[in-house]
Amino acid sequence: MILIRLFIFITLSLSLFLVSSCTSIPKRQGLDETIELLEKGEDIKKIVDALSKPLIKSRATVGMVVAVVTPQGQKIFTYGHADKLKKTKLSEDSLFQVGSITKLFTTSAISIMAKKGLINFNDKISNYFPKGFHPDHQSINNISIDQIVTHTSGLDREHQSFGMALSAVKFLFTGKNIWGHFKKRNMFEYFQESEVDESEIGNYGYSNTAYTLLGEVMSNVEAGKSYSDQVKEKVLAPLGLNDTVFVLNEDQRSRLASGHVGSIPPFMLRGSNLEPWYIDKGLWSAGSLYSTAKDLLTFLKVNMGIEEYEHYDILKEAQEPRFKTDEGYVGRSWFIDELPITKNAFTNIRGYFSGHISFMGFDLEKRVGVIVLQNSLNYKDNVGVPLLDRIVKFLNKSPEFGLVGLEDHNPSEKRELFVRNSL
Prior knowledge:
This protein is α+β, with helices and mostly antiparallel strands. 36% of the residues lie in helices and 15% in strands.
């Protein structure tokens, strides 16, 4: 087990080293120029263009959808292609595999379940294990739901097995699905024999494996309701997120942006197509949702308190810093870090899956949020944080001004919008 863990660590570290040493960022507009444009009342599109277009032109990414939102309005921008070979354009309705942003929907759903009294965050996960499943080590049974959603369970980032090690190596050269070989039964087998170093419990350690177990917990709370049923019923349906799905229908499949090689995998030709990844239904809770910028914008607005939502209280609670990470803090799925230029705190989450990367982040104090979806697998998005940082810098300097070029929130809908004075 130790040798396998070391091998997986070295393989992933090699990938990131090659990425960081070979990736170059094209020259883009400087911070001062950006602030000057905003102060002159220029359209926000000019700022987004200045950050995004060089990445398309340099072929750092094939396509990108960027969204900006404040209490005053919102705007979605599209760049490049949904498919490099077919030259199809991206739109606000293009679907992406959003990877670990799925975890935020998982946490939101289980938070609503807690609010309804169906579970308690302090419950041990063993309370909800299926009949007949009894892990060999008590340390697994003692893990709480809260420890999973805050990445403090002590569980490994990935399951440690020869199959995982082999998949990690294959990915570097082929881009093949790292989790393709792993099924629900493998999850039970893995946790049956796993043991947690109890000295690590309560310390931050990102874990995909923990979230796969959380999906099983959620499937055993209400009779006849699977993990995906809970997410749909508690979160997706009430918010009208019809394009945020676990399985694509025919229309959605036609709108799926093709994934491409970016800086990752390091031993493949940049711009090559990557096949979509599909993971076993029993593991969906860690990262398997598809979504659009349009849907994610709706979800971000309720998380920011821009749009009225009956469960805003628990979404806000999830954003509270709980445990220290290498770069900041973690809440429940959300990460709270520091913007590099303004040093403002910002709340964010990212996803990496197949040939797609996703970013969703906001500055709660300045009430501005950004979403970036790309269909090239790069280690850094190079747009989300720089864009948010620039807008915040402008708002810090000129708080009396708003952003020019935003459109009304959902003009065709009659949903109440408001600004919370308490924020």
